[in-house]
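Input.
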Amino acid sequence: YRRLHTKETRLSEFSQREIKAMLGSYTKVLFIRDPLHRLIATFLQGMGISPSFSSFVQEVLDSGTHNSSVAWKPLVSLCRPCLIQYDYVVMFGFLRQELGHLLRRAGLPAGNLLPELTDSQVQWTYRWLSEQMFSELSAQQKKRLSHVYRWDLAAFPFSSSFLSD
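Output.
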């Protein structure tokens, strides 16, 4: 497809015919992560200059979803799951299991290509971090975050997310 190998070509820059042909010929994989975990990871990576998680969350809430960073923008606004029928949806915390399945489906040897991932440790660590950091937030911040990410929480199985409580 023309412009296919240019840097950061948006899907909207292609014609409807090209979009349909591309989406029909590709295996579409969507990697998802609990919105609260995404915020925590962004904060821990120092992408926000805030001294506390609570003040970082307040900056995120004040920035609004239109001006927000891709790091914390709602997933449904980034990946359009209602418009694009993904072949696989892989949830962070189940990467080793899911990537092994994907590699086998593609006819590749899964064992040698997968990095050492310990899904259960990742899940436990983020559960603990979520408890700690979520407790720093005010009731209003929790409510606003749940509202910002309401469509992500409805579209994806984040049943254990603190934001869905």
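The longest helix spans residues 119-135.
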